[in-house]
Amino acid sequence: MKAFVDQEKCVGCGACAEICPEVFKMEGDKAVVHATPVPEGAEEKCREAEEACAPDAISVQE
User: Fold this and answer.
1) Which helix (H) or strand (E) holds 43?
2) Is the pTM above the cut of 0.85?
3) What is d(CA 36, CA 12) in angstroms, rounded to the nearest whole number?
4) What is residue 7's predicted lDDT score, i.e. its pLDDT?
5) Are 6 and 59 a contacting pair, CB within 8 Å?
6) In a domain, 62, yes or no
7) Is 46 helix (H, G, I), strand (E, B) or coil?
8) What is the pLDDT of residue 44?
């Protein structure tokens, strides 16, 4: 599984980094993916972060 953050859509709320710090972190005012592929055991939290992203900046691919 891989996660992606669309930097154009990201508003920098930080919800993804709070929900799934194993995959997402904040760099300045934008979220970035720092673990590719998504670590084993973090898949469910990664999907939660995708769902919680209000501007739909996060996408997850199996």
Assistant:
1) helix 43-52
2) yes
3) 20
4) 98
5) yes
6) no
7) helix
8) 98
40 is a domain residue? yes
Q: Provide the CATH number for the domain around residue 47.
A: 3.30.70.20
Contacting residues for 43 by C-beta, under 8 A, at least 6 apart: 1
Q: How far apart are CA 11 and CA 44, in angstroms?
A: 23
Q: Which domain holds residue 43?
A: 2-56
What does the pLDDT look like over 24-46, one tens digit per residue? 999 999 999 999 999 999 999 99
CA distance 26 to 4: 13
Cβ-based neighbours of 44, under 8 Å, separated by 6 or more: none
Residue 25: beta bridge partners?
32
